[in-house]
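Subject: Sanity check before I submit

Could someone independently write out the structure tokens for this chain? I want to compare against mine line by line before I put it in a report. The sequence has 153 residues.
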Amino acid sequence: MTKEGLSELEKELKLLKSVERPAVIRAIAEAREHGDLKENAEYHAAREKQSFIEGRLKELEVIISHAEAIDVSKFAGDGVVRFGATVLLADEDTEEEITYRIVGSHESDIKIGKLSVTSPLGRALIAKELGDTVEVATPKGSKSYEIVKIDYC
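---
Independent answer below. Compare away.
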């Protein structure tokens, strides 16, 4: 994963441990004070949130312990798409341009332009060069993109 992606996961882990976990423990204690736990919606909601937080904590700890942060700046200048590259693509049908950064699966978020290296488009882009065309199968049919720019920043 990228250094930035690892840093974001570490921040989330710290937030969950130092803020979210203590808050949910307080919420459970407060709900217990309200009496009968069988019909106490606040208690059940707090326990459910606690379960989610504990699960996410375990997941993050495993991901972080196995993560390898890659310095993508070492790839700059060779004109080949590799992990960590920011790639400007032009849709060959519509001429619409879109930018994606190729990242690890745990840090991907297509809404903000972070494309998983394991996604169909991510896999198609790896090892391609500036000016190459990539074709990807989508639910709406095949799409072709031209690689307009490759950047490592």
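---
OP: Matches mine. For the report I'm noting this point. The chain has two domains: 3-66, 72-151.
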